[in-house]
Amino acid sequence: MRAREARPRAAPRYVSEPKKPSLLSDTDFTPVLSRSALRYRKMRDRVIELLLLAAGLIAVFTTLAIVAILLIESSAFFKHVSIVEFLTDTMWTPLFADAHYGILPLVAGTLTTTVVALLVAVPIGTLIAIYLSEFAPTKVRETVKPILELLGAVPTVVYGYFALTMVTPALQRLIPDLPGFNMLSAGLVIGLMIVPYVSSLSEDAMRSVPRYMREGSYAMGATRLQTALHVVVPGAFSGLAAAFILGISRAVGETMVVAIAAGMQPNFTFDPREPAATITAYIVQVSLGDLPHGSIGYQSIFAAGLVLMLMTLVFNVIGYSLTRRFREAY
Amino acid sequence: MLDSSTLARAQSAGQSREEQPLANEQSTSAVADDEARAAGPRISISVDETRKSRTLKVKAAVENLNFYYGQHRALKNLSIPIADKQVTALIGPSGCGKSTFLRCFNRMHDLQPGTRYEGSITLYPDNLNLVGPGIDPIEVRMRIGMVFQKPNPFPKSIFENVAYGLRLRGVRNRATLAEEVEKALRGAALWDEVKDRLQDSALALSGGQMQRLCIARALATKPEILLFDEPTSALDPIATAKIEELISTLRDQVTVLIVTHNMQQAARVSDYTAFMYLGEIIEFDEAAKIFTNPSKKATEDYITGRYG
Ligand SMILES: Nc1ncnc2c1ncn2[C@@H]1O[C@H](COP(=O)(O)OP(=O)(O)O)[C@@H](O)[C@H]1O
Ligand SMILES: [Mg+2]
Q1: Tally of CB atoms within 10 A around A308
Q2: Does residue A208 sit in the same domain as residue A228?
Q3: Is B306 on the interface with A (CB under 8 A)?
Q4: A328, B164: Cβ pair inside 8 Å?
Q5: Is B9 in the pocket of ligand 1 (CB under 6 A)?
Q6: N or C: which end of chain A has fewer CB within 10 A?
Q7: Given B138, B152, B168, which is nearest A213 (Cβ)?
Q8: Residue A101 has what DSSP assignment?
Q9: B165 and A221 in contact by Cβ < 8 A?
């Protein structure tokens, strides 16, 4: 009651200044900003622009700094070791008395585990993505996707011991003389580990293929499977390529699983049944030891790191050019 | 049953005994011989201003068609005949159910859960109820083609786009494919523009070319009915004119059902026109009649632009 009475009393305040009928004459602010206000706005914009630029530059500088450190430390390394030896010697034993500095064994180990991983991750990841995107009822998709993404949150150490203590023994039943450390087991588990990444990104790519494109295929009399394989997959090509490239980058850069399950013996072979070390496994192995700064063993990890970076770069360039070539028009 | 007004006209227009239109199977089954049965029902059309009539075969008869999106009844008791090798246009304000109706013919709604058809769309001459529960939607789509509002070529080469339906139907022979693709592209008035770049991506074509490619893609499989859902609404006037001309020439080969919100277009290309409003067919008649002398007030308001 009180409030209701109070309102009419307060009302006259608002009507005390009668409004003029015209909208234009009613303005109580200057329509054009004063010069100082304009200057202030310009300055403010400039400052914000610079801040944004700085934020962007931090990322660029960090990358450049990493590259610079890699190059500087590696150049120290290459004062002792010729590039020819580095690229052609088939032994990598920087910590031995009889030191060899051939990167090939580490590259071979990295490529082998990566290929094994991709042989697992690409088909399984793509199949899961096709199923989730084209076949699964909404309910199933909503349940399965988070579970898959949860798999990606499992620490890689866990995967490493999973490979060593479960996958390897299982494989040894199939291949009796398989060593306890081998790249096959490590590669398979890395593959499983990156399935969620590949499937999640692939599914996003396939679901972004517009509905009218699918309808065009169904209207021609195609089944769901035919539509998925002949229209959706080609339509999502650049997204799929990106998913695979990301998978490769993950596999190449994966450290714990290979360090735990593949052994840490540099071994120039492409046979996945053999034990071997990858570039990352070597880096972590040396970093864990107490090599003095400036020693050649210490510098060798930067040379190895440089190679790792170049490999990832090459894959990314390939992926980028692939997506460019197959870019969809929508 | 067919729309009663149509039938009445059809009946009175029937010139001779053998041209007498048949309403539908049920009403004539007692007297019709097997031949008439096989021929299916007929519909009359006036060929000039004097309304001199000839009878035409009916390609499909829509009878008491209801369609539901879940609980929402989007189509209400539709009944019209679709004349064989003629262009039938569906007009009406946005949201009145034109696309919904069109998509019943090729069972596109089956892709969406919770949709339901009632009634029948009988395809002649084989008396197949397209929306019957026992009919495989894929079989229906194999026989009835569709062109969409937005040109939707596949991310493949021009050649593979046109060959798509043939491949789905198991054609593997390269020579046959090449021959049929050329025929379809010629049929869609696109051959001369693309014959030197059949292996290029279809996505590099212009909008109008893409839409003609989609028509070629549909034509390649020799559909019995070709459905168009506002095929020119995403195109410029010149591309639109080409498509309209094409639709007029397609009449000789295929039964066309076209949705358009463009009245001039409906008047230009169609032989028969149905005016829809709120899920119902308000009026169905020869296009000439609908656009010059509609019998319903609502139709007149709509075509003269007085609607909304
Ligand atoms: N996929 C759908 N799910 C549910 N309702 C729909 C769907 N598509 C259309 N409708 C509804 O059906 C009615 C008819 O729509 P539509 O056939 O698209 O109209 P038109 O093509 O004449 O513009 C509208 O009320 C619309 O909201
Ligand atoms: Mg529509």
Answers
A1: 22
A2: yes
A3: no
A4: no
A5: no
A6: N
A7: B152
A8: B
A9: yes
Encode burial over B195-221: b for 16+ CB neighbours within 10 A, e otherwise. Answer: eeebeebbbebeebbbbbbbbbbbbbb
Residues 6+ apart with CB under 8 A from B276: B90, B91, B92, B96, B97, B98, B101, B282
**Within-domain flag for B308:** no
B192: domain range?
A: 4-303
pTM (predicted TM-score): 0.77
| Per-residue pLDDT reduced to its tens digit, A132-156 | 999 998 899 999 988 988 888 889 9
Whether the predicted pLDDT of A5 surpasses 60: no
- ipTM of the complex as predicted: 0.84
Q: What is the pLDDT of residue A294?
A: 78
Residue nearest to atom 3 of ligand 1 (CA): B69
The domain boundary residue, chosen from A79, A114, A148: A79
- Residues of A in Cβ contact (< 8 Å) with B152: 210, 212-213, 215-216
Is residue A59 situated within a structural domain? yes
- Ligand 1 atom having least distance to the Cα of B103: 17
Q: Which structural domain range is residue A55 located in? A: 35-79
Q: Is the per-residue pLDDT at A10 higher than 80?
A: no
Counting from 1 in the atom list of ligand 1, the atom nearest the Cα of B109 is: 1
Of A137, A221, A237, the CB nearest to B141: A221
Average pLDDT of the segment spanning A173-188: 92
Provide the token pair at A14.
């608002």
C-alpha to C-alpha distance for B214 and B233, rounded to whole angstroms = 15
For residue A231, give how far its alpha carbon lies from the nearest alpha carbon of chain B (Å): 6
Query: Tell me: the pLDDT tens digits for B202-244?
Result: 999 999 999 999 999 999 999 999 999 999 998 999 999 999 9
Q: Whose structure tokens read 């019943």?
A: B104
Nearest CA in chain B to A234: B155
